[in-house]
Amino acid sequence: MARPQSRQRRSVPPWWSRLGRQGRRHWRRVAIAVILFGVGGAIAFFDTGLAERSRSQFSVDGLWPPVAPSLSETDFFKRNHLAAAARRIQPQVLVLGVGEPRPIDNGTTVYPEVGTGLLLDGQGTYGVTAASVVGRGDQPIAALLADGRRVAATVRGIDPVLGIAVIVLGTGRRPDAALDLGKPPKPGDWTVAIGSPAGLTRTVAIGTVSATDRGLELAGISDRQGEFIQIDAAITQGLEGGPLVNGSGAAIALMVRPTTTTDAPPYGIPLTAVLRSAEQLMATGRARHGHLGLVLTPLTRDRRDTLNGFLEPAELITASQGLAVVAVDPDGPAAQRLREGDVIVAMDGQPVDSLAAYRMALHRAAIADPTQPALPPMSITLRRGDRTLTLAIAPALTRTLLPPP
């Protein structure tokens, strides 16, 4: 029987053999301690260097915790986009004094009412403000321009349905830049409002867009028609009528502060709607609006389920999109034709799936022929239960006030 080969012993230095078992154990521990100490020192050295570089990069005069270095005015406005947005719109902002001016002891002049306006045209001739700022339009108005001049202004027309007024400046000034119209905002977007609360001219208020396409019936404001922008900002008297701009300084709305209820949030009239009305007011002094006497809501699955809980089985909503009729004015033009639960899907052959599309369809009908005393019938396609109906209904015409000559 062959003997198994013996395992070859590893060669070790003679001095290591002479240490003995206890000596070798001792020196192993020393070696491990030296290795750990070296690794810890390297880590500490790296952390110290990083901290020193952080101090030198972010601190001022060697202070720690770090203190942000001061910025030049140019660098500040480059980095603070909201401040830059406020500066960009300032040339178009008007400070409006309404009523008979009254001098006070220090030589300045005060007005019974102070509001804000916005220049519309490149020549500085026309401006727009909230209808609440000018009242009936029979009071004298003085407009303070961005260059410090104060000029007389008169009311060209008032649109109480939308809540705006167009003013004409006696001696206008061409703005440094044309008014920039921004894209429709989204909830969460930053906003900047410019106004004159308590006579403090050109005050800046920062906020966000809370919601868009808001109908004001929920806020108890039944005399306003349109899709409004709900704002989370401190909009007080004096800021209303001023512009609301986005983070790049482009105008998106005209600020209005509700006066019918203290619980209603501030809101903005989308500038696209303002310009549609202002164009009519500048041309004729009047703005035509049509309405059907309906309270509508864009149809969603949850809203459809909620509305179906109040309808008869034969009238359950089966449509997947459109505008659902929530209420019908008994004295309105659609009172005998439409009912709760109907879903409007088209008007004059154009699809209608949002309040903006509905308002635009009424606007097209209102301005189609301004010489006619009444609006022509519109073709309205709707879903009632599982049926599709097409009805001809003439919207009612609401006229605005023309200030006395």
Give the beta-strand count: 22
> Which structural category fits the helices and strands?
alpha+beta
Tally of separate domains: 3
CATH topology of the largest domain: Thrombin, subunit H
Rg, please? 35 Å
Average of per-residue pLDDT values: 77
Give an overview in words:
- Helix content is 24%, strand content 29%.
- Residues 54-69, 217-224 and 401-405 have low confidence and may be disordered.
- It has eight helices and 22 strands.
- It has a six-stranded antiparallel β-barrel.
- The protein folds into three domains: 25-68, no CATH class; 83-284, Thrombin, subunit H (Beta Barrel); 289-398, Pdz3 Domain, CATH 2.30.42.10.
- With 405 residues, the chain is of the alpha+beta class.
- The protein has helices spanning 14-18, 20-58, 73-79, 81-89, 131-134, 271-284, 301-308, 355-367, and strands at 93-98, 102-103, 109-110, 113-119, 126-130, 141-144, 150-159, 164-169, 190-195, 203-214, 228-232, 243-245, 251-256, 267-270, 289-291, 294-298, 323-328, 343-347, 350-351, 378-384, 387-393, 396-398.
What attributes characterize this protein structure?
single chain, 405 residues, alpha+beta, Pdz3 Domain, 3 domains, six-stranded antiparallel β-barrel, 24% helix, flat, disordered C terminus
